[in-house]
Amino acid sequence: MQNVNSNIIASIKGIHKKFDNKLALNNVEFDIKANQVLAILGSNGAGKTTLINMLLGRLTPDSGRISVFSSDAGSQNAKQKTGAMLQVASLPDTLKVKEHIELFRSYYPTPMAYQKIIAYAGLEHIENRYSKKLSGGEKQRLLFALSLCGNPKLLFLDEPTVGMDITARQKLWQTIRDLKAAGTAIVLTTHYLEEADSLADEVILLKQGSVIEKGSNEKIKSCVSSTTIQFITPATPFKVANITGVISYDQYGKYTKLQSNQGNQTLIELLTIKPDLKELTVTRAGLEEAFLQLDKNVTKNVKDAA
Amino acid sequence: MNTTILNQHSEPSNKHYLTKLYWLETKFEWLKTIRNPSFAIPAVLFPVIFYLFFGVLINANNIEASTYLLATYGTFGVMGPALFSFGSGLAVERGKGWLDIKEASPMPASAHIVSRIIVSMVFSFIIIISLGFVAFVVAGVNLTLSQSLLLLITLLLGGLPFCLLGLTLGFILKAESAAAIVNVIYLPMAFLSGLWLPINMLPSFLQSLANYLPPYHLSQLALKVTQQDMGGSVLNHLVMLALFSVIFLALAIMASNKRQA
Fold this sequence. Notes:
The structure holds two protein chains of two kinds. Chain A is α/β, with parallel strands linked by helices. Chain A folds into two domains: 2-222, Rossmann fold; 226-284, Alpha-Beta Plaits (2-Layer Sandwich). Chain A has eleven helices and 14 strands. Chain A has helices at residues 2-5, 48-55, 76-80, 97-106, 114-121, 136-148, 166-181, 193-199, 217-224, 263-273, 287-305, and strands at residues 8-19, 22-33, 37-41, 63-68, 71-72, 82-85, 154-158, 185-189, 202-207, 210-216, 227-232, 246-252, 255-260, 281-284. By secondary structure, chain B is an all-alpha fold. Chain B has one domain (14-259). Chain B is built from eleven helices and no strands. In chain B, helix 5 runs antiparallel to helix 6 (145-158). The longest helix of chain B has 33 residues, at 2-34. Chain B is globular and about 55 Å long. The N and C termini of chain B lie far apart (42 Å). Chains A and B meet through helix 3 and helix 4 of A and helix 1 and helix 4 of B.
């Protein structure tokens, strides 16, 4: 049994949570594994923050079970092996970068070496700066440094690159890859789908508290990889939905925009029916369109079911 | 076999780790506080300036009044750091999400609270010594050594119920309005407890109301040192302060639990 589960660090089983009769999480289940970046994606209010707070033991589920390092979430054992970078508006103004780190290192029995933290977070030249003088990106780097203080085996990163410039962002991504290679399990929530795409091994899509899709990054991308075809809506109407490969379509102002999973076939049929389409553009849908698409499909299904 | 070795080592190092943790938490709480002039300066200066005006200048050559007001402004002085460090300090850190980070770490909650209590007490100590300096040097108040020490200890320990009240407020108040609301509680409560004007100068219905205010009981204990109190029993004042402490502690625990519900 140990062989099978040895790389599972945390497991979440059948979690439900209601706030004031509103379902915040509905039957959420997944595992967190070592050597892996797990991205939790979803729009605002999808339940990402609730889920993270539950994994940290700061919220208790109404039903279901969370186990982190074979202990309860939020237990001392779990906390000592976990690091968390949460969204913080500001740090106490009147402490210096190095003082914040010194303090957080003291919270853990076997902390990461100070110089290693500084190097990972790229804080080399601002160790003596007061936190009120930090820019948005520097503040994020300090919060990242604090999440590393305990040498975590499990690291939560909630919107880690908000406010960072491109160089800092890419340095953080590299650090995340290094930590992953060293065996750390990383749970990432982000609005930047590019970030998720670049880092994640596994992806979970949350929508109104439910997991609407989960699997490897590749799997998610393949099930949503589609082509976006856009053109000016012709004067004489025709049935877009009947064309081969069309998954969905919509009208934006004077344009018709459709998603197809068989782009070439769709284009051939489309141009056969309407050879004079104007302003025809064809783009490959990225994770972003795909995510929006999945998100929207579920909304439709929910509405249909209701 | 490896585990035995580990356990043998972890016992003393565990103790060392906790000592260091509490020490650093207190050290940085202290640095954080004294580096914030908008807290540190008024906390010390207000009671001292008030005492200088009302206790010394207005009552020039009235040593009895200066002695009386040393006890009441001392009470006023220790309430400030307790209410503000816990009340608005905690509310601001909570509101900005900083407390979330601390709670996600393995820092024991007690370290956070103990460090704030110690810092409040050190501030209280500085305030009492400053008041004492004004009283002895400027006003010519005369207390014996044992009276001085008893007054100091009474006021220092008397800050505890206000730390607990502050803790409750820190969990409830919004960051933006915390300081204002703490003032709205602090200043009227100080006045109604007879800290600014002697309690027997207040109308009688206000005097009976004072029985339900914790600063009144602390000031009466402090006045007992110079036999200038209203004559209530020490036990009664201690019981009332203990009762308030229990109520504030229970409220603080409820507020903290509600936050995490």
